[in-house]
Amino acid sequence: MALRDSTEIQGDILAGFKKDHMTLLFLRFGDSAAARSWLKDLVDNNRLATTQQVAAFNAQFSEGRDNLKGADPDLKATWVGLSLTYPGLTVLTGKQDLLPESDGIDAVGAFVQGAARRARPLGDVDNNAPDNWLFGADEKQVTHAVLTVAADLKDDHDKELTRQKDAATRAGLVPVHEQSGATLPQPRRGKEHFGFKDGVSEPNVEGIEAKPEPGARLLSADFFVLGATGSALPEGVPEWMRNGSFQVVRRLGQDVPGWWAQVGTELKKLKDAKVVGPKTSMEWLASRLVGRWRCGASVHNHPDATRDPITDNPSIKPDNVISYKNDPNGVITPLFSHLRKTNPRDGLIDGELVEEELLDRRRIIRRGIPYGAPFDPTSPGGGPDEERGLVFICYQADLVDQFEFMQRNWVNTPNFPPGRTPKPGPDPMISGALSKIGDGDVSFETDTGGSQLTITKLHFQPFVHTEGSLYAFTPSLSTLRKLGEGRLDGAEVTGGQTTNGGQRPQPQVKPGPIDEILPWLDVEGRYWVFSGNKVRVVGTGAEEVDQLTTGKDDATGIVFGEPADLSAWDALQGVERVDAIWPVPDEQSLNGESSYWLFHTKNGTQVYRRIWIALNSRHTSRTSGRDMPLTNWRTALGGGTRVTHVDAVLPVPDMQHVNGRSQYWLFHTTAAGQRYRLVSVAEEPGHTDRLDREDRDLTQWQSLNGVTNVDAIGFVLGKYQVGGKTWCWVQHDGGQYRTISIADGFGHQDTLVGDRGSRPNTPWFRRG
Q1: Which of 230, 399, 496, 573 is most buried per CB count within 10 Å?
Q2: pLDDT, tens digit, for every residue of 488-501?
């Protein structure tokens, strides 16, 4: 059966409601039994739209529009969709530990934590911070369910919305927030408030698209719906999540006059620099910021237009088959443009051209709609102070690897695409932290006919603000039916009231990602463990090592004292987070102290400094006092792909102090995912560095099967070069760890220790 005929997958995910009127009801449950009864009625009465229904309607509507030469046919429908937050699921099941938090390292863990707890890394700071949100903030009323009502006609929409509100009220559900949206009236129909055609860049999904655009890439539905094609579910995802999708809902306020005024200011800089003509329009520059003209036609395929090309040629339509291979420097479509920042396509250079197939797993499906009246100061309700913006909705199979990766690693990163001087800058359209990321500067590159491109610095402030954000899950119809009936995968749920909004109890010491593990050289079995802006001391003896290594449930990492701020170390002044610490090979336990290279990120760019730690009771530290660029490492961090972010460094055990050099495995971040390389450093005053082997994929390590990102590696106490093997603890993917073994000799064969694989790194945060 083709996916378009699915009666299991809800209709908005793959097919898309695509209606002129839509409202999202954010609801809080009261009595759990009443909430299950409400859900059961919703499913049993076939109120929730399926992919089969929505896809069939959309195909019929599209055919009718073709027959009418672009006019809308007289076909109308009303759709309802439902998603549940993690607190909502705990109320319906009565199970506070229904899903593991996993410290937020994977999609399930991110879903459990929720959008508010993950706001800062995504750029939701200052005015965009959760304290200012209308929904989704932990401190405000908890949302348990998001009910979507969408219709072609306003009357139909309003009738269904009233029906759903009445049913929710009868079941004791409380509205937390009501977010309405509507297609803008002509001539803005189909556009967002800045005036640009929206919803053009959606992926084409195999089994859904009846008539994809010629040349379009077809992506597997598994990128957007868990196990949609019958494939195995990712590790840690329970079977009841099959045919469901993680949903992100964000309310993005838009300051329309402020944004366009800024476009005019920055256009003047280009004119003053004489890189554009004196008659260049604001629309020309705005289209470069977006990557599309206002009609939806791509700048790349229509670079010679001086204004919206549909004005001169009505036959031009929105297009989504775009290749950036012939524009690697962003001269036609800037590298910082919204279109390239959120989907680099086949034009991403990271040392070498990155295959587009590697980027497919970052794609999301967007379902947005404007809210508020169009900006028109001459009409009532159209002034600059009126609320207006976009209700952003997206679906994906992995919150971390898709929406969050795109927002964190592409949109908000000035050094993406990587390795360019000057940096391209953040996305000037939607990066909420523009004022904090590289001061909001972007590099506008122009080919003026010389031997090198001309770079003009432009500056942008945020005129799009996050006013609410929420993570939810859109289950299959079968799972919703089981939840309504009080059963889920055979586990009976319990009744009664919920407490604390369905939130989980907090552990004694809050676990989190471990960024680095640094052993004490003068006390065996003690380590400094760096996590975020904190450092703590962990002590292990033989018993604790056995527990941590074999993965017993009662594993105990012994924490001495309370976590300290990084600023408590003189050597770490100005360091917000430690990325990696690399021991200087010939300066360990030398003259009463040990020397290290410390890598950390500053204003979005990784730098490094030299630090020294004394071998005394207080382990006092000092630094050279200055941060240096990674380009100082001329060879080890160069090669085919220049290293821009060192994640972890592991000394090769049997290759230390050999012929005056020490060798290391270096793990680093690239646009296509983490890679590792083999490097060495000479034991001399200049510490000459060398690249011994180019980058390889993590799949070369059989012990790292399933690992996406190595965060830190530490040698296991008493297991260094014992019987020709060395054991290591590998902290990975933001909150898990496993134990691996590395053999001495050619090939350095590696194996996974034990049969449990990875487990949460909670033991590293427990008090003894």
Answers
A1: 399
A2: 864 444 433 333 33
